[in-house]
Fold these 3 entries.
Entry 1:
Amino acid sequence: MPKTIKKVAVLTSGGDSPGMNAAIRAVVRTCAYHNVECLGVYRGYEGLIEGDFVVLDARSVKGIINKGGTMLKSARSKEFRTAEGRQEAYKKLKEKGVDGLVVIGGDGSFTGALVFNQEFNFPVMGIPGTIDNDIFGTSHTLGFDTALNTVVDAIDKIRDTASSHNRLFFIEVMGRDVGHIALNCGIAGGAEEILIPEEDLGLERLVESLNKSKKSGKTSSIVIVAEGDKIGKNIFELKDYVDENMEGYDVRVSVLGHMQRGGAPSCFDRVLASRMGVKAVEAMLDGESNYMVGLKNNKMELTPLDSAIKGKTKINLELLRVSDIMST
Amino acid sequence: MPKTIKKVAVLTSGGDSPGMNAAIRAVVRTCAYHNVECLGVYRGYEGLIEGDFVVLDARSVKGIINKGGTMLKSARSKEFRTAEGRQEAYKKLKEKGVDGLVVIGGDGSFTGALVFNQEFNFPVMGIPGTIDNDIFGTSHTLGFDTALNTVVDAIDKIRDTASSHNRLFFIEVMGRDVGHIALNCGIAGGAEEILIPEEDLGLERLVESLNKSKKSGKTSSIVIVAEGDKIGKNIFELKDYVDENMEGYDVRVSVLGHMQRGGAPSCFDRVLASRMGVKAVEAMLDGESNYMVGLKNNKMELTPLDSAIKGKTKINLELLRVSDIMST
Amino acid sequence: MPKTIKKVAVLTSGGDSPGMNAAIRAVVRTCAYHNVECLGVYRGYEGLIEGDFVVLDARSVKGIINKGGTMLKSARSKEFRTAEGRQEAYKKLKEKGVDGLVVIGGDGSFTGALVFNQEFNFPVMGIPGTIDNDIFGTSHTLGFDTALNTVVDAIDKIRDTASSHNRLFFIEVMGRDVGHIALNCGIAGGAEEILIPEEDLGLERLVESLNKSKKSGKTSSIVIVAEGDKIGKNIFELKDYVDENMEGYDVRVSVLGHMQRGGAPSCFDRVLASRMGVKAVEAMLDGESNYMVGLKNNKMELTPLDSAIKGKTKINLELLRVSDIMST
Amino acid sequence: MPKTIKKVAVLTSGGDSPGMNAAIRAVVRTCAYHNVECLGVYRGYEGLIEGDFVVLDARSVKGIINKGGTMLKSARSKEFRTAEGRQEAYKKLKEKGVDGLVVIGGDGSFTGALVFNQEFNFPVMGIPGTIDNDIFGTSHTLGFDTALNTVVDAIDKIRDTASSHNRLFFIEVMGRDVGHIALNCGIAGGAEEILIPEEDLGLERLVESLNKSKKSGKTSSIVIVAEGDKIGKNIFELKDYVDENMEGYDVRVSVLGHMQRGGAPSCFDRVLASRMGVKAVEAMLDGESNYMVGLKNNKMELTPLDSAIKGKTKINLELLRVSDIMST
């Protein structure tokens, strides 16, 4: 029979994403609903080691559901990768009487949580918060939908100027290892080509495809490039290559950068965050540990943390095909 | 063996929704991709009867993926409900050599398509376009996600002024028969109460709940009301009731209205529209008819039109519970 | 020689508007810059009478420049209209050692400030915060520019659905006594007609004008109506009149309501708020009192509070003419 | 007595800016209002030389007031800098019976117009369209206000992630020769420092100022850098310098790029464009030539083209001071 949970701590860790505040709010209010105390931990595992806590009740999280970033701040902690660091963190939690820990973050953060659980048998639950959508066990990570809308809005703006000038734009979006943002935003932004880490189009085929676009009557073009695209050139080298190998285009580069991480979360991300926060706390109160909550087929489901970490989310091949057809 | 499709017509019908233009574009480009001709029909079934057609090629739909509304315009046609009207429409399609018809709209539009097919054995495919998300066979209708973001943005703005003045706002959102918009936006907007057609909270319980909110320290409140809420009072009567039965609140009403139908579609709706357009045309080229394309578990699936029309989409009870917990 | 100001109080009063938080921040930071203490007063004159104060330093106003509403909340105070109420307010300010008061609000709030100054010779400065832009002595009030963008965004969305359905929309915007919002947004939203409190178009001419629009080939129309339009019918009566006297239009009504008051302030309003806050505090430190700060010809200028209250801002006749020409 | 103008041509030239479409619409509809014919010229002076014209009537410009970019497309023309090019352009205009030319663009475009007028005594009028706000004779150029809001929205998003991680961000905004965008957006975005072409802060003082910020309790910082900032380092070199000379900050760079040129124009820019279009055409019909229309003290005024070209718009020193005080 599981030990009764009476006090839960919550932290955000790794790169921030829109919806993290909404998830914090949901964790705190679900605790309040079940008469469980709740502590916020500042700056992820760093703050855990330092004992940088704050008491959170239902009113403390008022007005944050629509704020980007994380009110608890986030960090990457080297110390938590050491046994001493984790020992210190455990001590701090025990001092405060905390019984369970909810970690909002990506797979690096979950790895830390899992090791921590294994060492101290301390209940942990994960909520997937990252714009990259690269976590196994959920169709959508927190912040992914918001980031898509931010990127598409930027592409729309760039399209205005591209089509006024018959220009070719390379637009870099986030995604070192996965092309989810690039692929969705490429389709939604009406891109002529999408370069993702999962697929090597090759430079020749890129130029060929752009030439075909041009012949079909297109006077401006947009190519979406994920940070980690397979061609293995950075976006400025791509521009140079096309400058040398294509005529009639004025080629420009835009790197969207960190604005992709911020902004008010979309309705989808706020609802998802609320559902995930409820599920994470209630699963923990039911005696579960070492799970990540996720969205599967529009339902909340639990996935073991180690599967979430090891698993791979694959690119949807149907979307690749849709992209090809749409750039006809 | 199915007859080969060589020319497809596409129309939008019923209330417009964001993403309809993106779906038209997808239908047109998929036709182009498969070397099938494509005609657009203006003003839904009205234009079909009048033969108000336009030839659409890949370039004709340039720059519309991010536009709200529908370039083909929409209408509700009384004449298409008569056998004579449908006979005339059939004649016009035959004259133009059209082999198949894609209908983008809601269940009323699908009923028309189904009857038309039964009378003339004419291939039809449906794409669910409505902000209400009330169509069986797809987890999301085209425009639903965009409408959610529009509504949540409006709630955020009203919240600014509500909390500056310690006010109670009743906000009416679309949804005569279903509470999907109200429920999602209520959660995402941090509403204290959500009144939907599927559930009768009762006026006494509403006041009780608002009083509880107030005692818990909330100084302003937002109640989201679907057009067709079960309490059976219109939103101004609700205000009057609360004015008479609660003290200490300045009660206001806001009816969001038709702006919910417009605006640039979200990334989600653009991708969904693109996928649906591809699927609808390719299914038709494969010899299918009388289906609606839909999103199920993140995959494109076909649902027989009669199931789509008769089926009911139920409110997600989990969301009701999340809403209760979040308003703690 | 003016008494040295060592402690300033700031409050927001009347209807809230976007930019009020930015103005509070500017007042607080200008005080900090000049080593003057600053107190915030909650709920306008109500809080002044109750002594509901909060110490504000440069860090207290972090992260509010982009927030709608007012962190100090606002209210309308009946008690401050009585001599006893003002006496109590004066007592509370003296107890706290406050030397000067900055009032962010509209003309009602300025009237209160002026009376207060006359009774107690207490230094007061006004910052014009209202979306209506109806205050003499400044080309722009705080929040006006933001409200314009909010309204135009809503009109754009409604236009999407209007033009998809060949509809005529009456859209009501704020402005009981002045038509600034209606006139600017009408031009920017491409409205066919704009009804404002300053001008009586007459119902017959409205219908005539709409008929002319229709004949010129327009298939949908938008009429912007200020709350206080001169025709003297409310917007639903307007719809009924047009329904009876025009054919071929499906007429709809949308009342934009309180969302016009909220939202993140525009760049213009944030810069204006910052400039006004600096000017208000520095003028006070220079010994000035009973002035409102305002924008004139892109410069900060002082206007005596009584002129600001009594003066009238007139509608720009050039804009009326531009509107007529644009609806050609 | 001036020759009667019976046919006007309009073109957009140079970098595009939001509001150009609204200005085209205003020129076209003002012509229609006065029964003057109107031709659109594609791709600026390039299209003029090639005779790439389109007839525009009141209905041709429907639905473009809220679109970014320019429907007439823009270009920079080398040929128009030659006497032969201009001779050819003149010939094309005469062939079509055009009597006057409205040029929407920046100072380069105006220089072309002026030379053209001097050579052929052809009536020309300028409308200042550029996001940089660097044209003498108008307090605001078309697109400036929209660009400000686009930049501030991006800064808000970056601020979310900056403050979640205690980061220092250098954000590059447009402005090679003038710091208007940087200065306004720096204030509105709550930047700690603003680097502009007009002022050399010096690297040491920058680091000093950031250190002071940090000591005052700020945990994240944003520095806005105009493209042409005076320190003379590009933004990546700035980052390197700070990385080496400051501790405790994780320094990041974001270059906002071309998205600053696009997007739906703000209400302000749409109204301004409408006013400018009316004024430009009506001034020309009144026999004027060689002027630029501009906004001065909220009124439409004419400035001789040569003054507009030679004049310098200075940075508002008051804003620099406000920026200093706000970063207290």
Entry 2:
Amino acid sequence: MGELRKDPILGRWVIISTERSKRPDSFVKEKEKTEDDKDKCPFCEGREKMTPPEIYSLRVPNTKPDEPGWRVRVVPNKFPALNTETELEKRGYGVHDMMTSFGTHEVIIETPDHDRDIKDQTIDEISDVIRVLQYRVEELQKDERFRYILIFKNKGKEAGASIRHPHYQIIGLPITPKRVREELHGAEVYFKLKERCIFCDLIEQEKSWGERIIYENDGFISFCPYASRFPFEVWILPKDHSIDF
Amino acid sequence: MGELRKDPILGRWVIISTERSKRPDSFVKEKEKTEDDKDKCPFCEGREKMTPPEIYSLRVPNTKPDEPGWRVRVVPNKFPALNTETELEKRGYGVHDMMTSFGTHEVIIETPDHDRDIKDQTIDEISDVIRVLQYRVEELQKDERFRYILIFKNKGKEAGASIRHPHYQIIGLPITPKRVREELHGAEVYFKLKERCIFCDLIEQEKSWGERIIYENDGFISFCPYASRFPFEVWILPKDHSIDF
């Protein structure tokens, strides 16, 4: 079933997943991967039985779960990195620390249509997806065993997407990732030093320079960060000082 | 010329390099890249003028620099991430911290023969390469502006190697990378807690389990770490408790 293991030097937790090695394209070189096959896509309308039973969906009244008629559909990942059937248990193992692979790994299918990418979706359709993401995060937050909930989307083979049909993923973790702890710590150190929020200061700085801003409206600002790690890195920040969305 | 920029939240330095964007394969998708062309390889014997002038070489007596007759050859990277022609200077920039792109980026060409990969090289040839790496590190250590010297080798296009001819790279940095600081810190915390070296403890643990050891001789041990981040991750540690090689 896999487990979480702690790096004894860096203090970073790593997911050791036996399930995910069963994915059909593991260890296959890019050029040898089969092309995404629309005729067999498990996320398309009419193939609901190909995924695990759905957790949630937005659908036409009087249609049943795991049948056609949905607009947005949430299902468990078929090859989960973590799962909620495991009890959360922490153990020492020699000099090491480990934890059972408790957690959740959900897939949010944005649309029944294989080719309806975000650029083709209407504002209403995109709003539906965002509301479902928000709902799932709120549901998962009720379980105190989760320390961190991550939403992500891989788009394109280069980004690791094994299925082209538009979808997000949500992972609920029993630990706070090292990178997140570091961000919280960095913001706290800055606040102790300056008595100001670092994100608010960064927004002000970018607005005064005006060089790296991509888009701005009443609620949000997006820009390329000063110390980008890779080309085209973009941040989207809420302009109001608030701790969550 | 590029510069180093500090991430204001994580404290991580990022190299912003204008030179490297000039590399011929930047932003070209894998399948569009031209195949490595042996007839034009700048690292092959006889094409010494295609690289910047050599820094060092092991060669047949009475042959001249930048001419054939070498066994191992050290040249500056033609598209350096950092360079020593820049003065090391630190500046504030609004809320940010930056540093000029002082540093070094060298290429160690292991063999004059394009196809003579490490698996084909003799022990003597490999020893030559390692001695040259060691020599360059010792030379660079004499410059107090360097805080960290990194040796690495990209092999294969998947790993980012743009030239197939066997070569190492050395980067000398004016900062200690965040990851390295964290390793030093982690080892220190462990020592303060246990009054023992974490690396020595990890070697003992792996030897007692015997599950993850790949190879061991009098001087070294190699194993897959308990909390591997990716499949086939391998560590090679000296069995003697020593701070460097």
Entry 3:
Amino acid sequence: MAEAVRHDKTARQLRLLSDALDSGRLGPVKRLVNTLSPAEIGNLLESLPPAKRTVVWGLVDPEDDGEVLVHVGDEVRESLLAEMDPDEIVAAVEDLDIDDLADLAEDLPDTVIDEVLKSMDRENRERLEQVLSYPEDTAGRLMNPDVVTVRADTTVDVVLRYLRLRGELPEHTDHLYVVSRRHQYLGRIALASLLTCEPTDPINRLIDDEQPAIDVDESDDEVARQFSDHDWLSAPVVDDGNVLLGRITIDDVVDIIRDRAEHQALGAAGLDEDEDLFSPIRRAMRRRLIWLTINLGTAFLAASVVGQFEMTIEKIVALAVLMPIVAGMGGNAGTQVLALMIRGLALGQVGSSNAGVLLWKEVRLALLNGLSLGLLLGVIVWFWFGDPKLSAVIATALTLNLLFAATAGVLVPLTLKRLGFDPALASSIFLTTVTDVLGFFTFLGLATLILVR
Amino acid sequence: MAEAVRHDKTARQLRLLSDALDSGRLGPVKRLVNTLSPAEIGNLLESLPPAKRTVVWGLVDPEDDGEVLVHVGDEVRESLLAEMDPDEIVAAVEDLDIDDLADLAEDLPDTVIDEVLKSMDRENRERLEQVLSYPEDTAGRLMNPDVVTVRADTTVDVVLRYLRLRGELPEHTDHLYVVSRRHQYLGRIALASLLTCEPTDPINRLIDDEQPAIDVDESDDEVARQFSDHDWLSAPVVDDGNVLLGRITIDDVVDIIRDRAEHQALGAAGLDEDEDLFSPIRRAMRRRLIWLTINLGTAFLAASVVGQFEMTIEKIVALAVLMPIVAGMGGNAGTQVLALMIRGLALGQVGSSNAGVLLWKEVRLALLNGLSLGLLLGVIVWFWFGDPKLSAVIATALTLNLLFAATAGVLVPLTLKRLGFDPALASSIFLTTVTDVLGFFTFLGLATLILVR
């Protein structure tokens, strides 16, 4: 039910906009679009088929263009950029924050990046170049170098005067960072504590040095974990020598968390999280065919197992009727184990220290479930085909296949992870191959042994 | 690769802890555990089998007990609470923030809640009772009533003096809220702007009234959407009469986003996001059996379709060998469409206004993929069985089943959503039922028409 209520607002906007577009009157469309935040506009653009998307993109206030580009997936971004000439792109992106600009940089033509760099003042140019010098998916790329720093050997009074002179603080500033003469990170001071302390207090009495700084090379996943484990809203980023380079704010971390979840959900079906709902058919076809061809290969593997038992099936056709049940139930049971394992691995909760205990728990569970379901299945098959031996064969085969499924459900993701692959993406294919192949083999093999001679 | 690097720190801690536990020396375990944040301790406890979990829980600094309870899933929380006597529970939770306490309240024995309420001062008691009076999964439950308010008809100077007198601000305070005489929400003032303005400025010149307040009845999903669409760090919560009730901070929103992603990933396999990795075997068994029994039912449906064609299979056993390929490939192709649809629905990007265009795109894509894969499959089958007619039958059946899969992939989640169900949870069962039943029917039906007579 929760899902049904969710995002009703977005869906409503989409419908309104779509109706207005269909009616051809662009005035209302333009007004509607420009009441939205850039993220909402991005969301709407992603939901529109190419032709409508082009029309609406042309109606977005040029001032919002840059922020909208930041908020859409790679594929949609490409389609939007294709509609703009270089001057428009430069105008759209030059006022973005450094971290957003760095995020976009991959997708921008080199000439545009050169133009943007030229249009910046020296300080910002150097900052952008610095951020771009760090690899993607690291803290260095996420950080914004625009931070307010103060020195430890001063008083609150002086800092307050400095802030008043400085005027506006960078967006989402909740702490000032205290640095040494050589710009090394010493700790931070909450804006809240500046407001509640006495002006004559020395700064070093307010310093909070409990929160460790983030290393610039840290992976963005690790950054996300630390933020959510410690309920941080922002964190300083330092280099090897503890020199303060910038800060990461939670709004960017939220984007990582969402991306990661989408990556897992779509990746498990062989899709990219940046996949456009309306991606050009040729591109979509290529991506899906790769995945389906791999699956076709594993399906042949299973079919060749069945092929070994053609003689048996010829004699007892009921086996052909029942064999998909054994294989399919193994796949379903294994998928449950897999879902738990994938989450456990993602949270770092599963590893060599508890894999054995987990496997043992899942095997016991599979045995109990297998016996229960096997009994149920056996009774139904007995009624259907009137053959107690067939019924015993399928009950045994089902139980065995659930045991195989549990074992594969635990071991496949662990093995993939150890080999350096992403278990969330590839586990499911391996698992169903195991449950299909062993399911068919066990059922038809037992049938050959017990029913045929 | 990203996944492989992720959370190495957690996995390392887990291994260290596990080794220390195995060695039986509890001193090092205790020291190790108490260097961790409550969320990290929670994560570790979730990764431990019951016996070790009990030992480690006993070693956690009682001061952290409450925060740890907040950071674990429902099932694990239950197992931890079972180890505590009422006095310990009261001591653990009475100092929690109101919003965290409200979050725990469901799982606490009534006697404990009464004790906690008694131990609170009147203001906090009323606040807790108020928060608990709102339904779960709404903004009212998420909010913390502890906010700092100021009146509009004053100056910065006065506010600064008030803050200094007040001392510490509630955690994660980034704005003060401006309210009317009747406590109605008028707007907010960033701490940053208090620090950069002139002390003589009137307060009403600093008020930012651009951010709309959140309605106390809003669903938590909608709250999460607004936060991420607008990059908010906090937001005021008001009632119908615009009276300020509290504020929601982004750290709680991050928890919602994570929960939602887990809910989708585990829910699709018939599991609960609060499922304990080591849940008691009887409970785990019950939950999984329900799901597997439903799947057994759909498997029988598919088997009964195959049963209609026993005569055909008896004549051409190769059909039994090949039929799982047709059904399975339909399932795989449909799963890809489903993954895109589920994400689109979750983001509000898919609705009645574009469902038609999407269906048309997916059907075209399925036709192209079906013809390509059908050709490949046909050639292989021709080589394998040397029968061009069989090869034509399976190529046609595969193409048709991919078309059915695309149609079901688009329509099943839309229909479930319209009926008020969560499409992320139930779509996959319906989809594979469609692709199995129609896959078998098309393949075996065509074979009967073309190959048998």
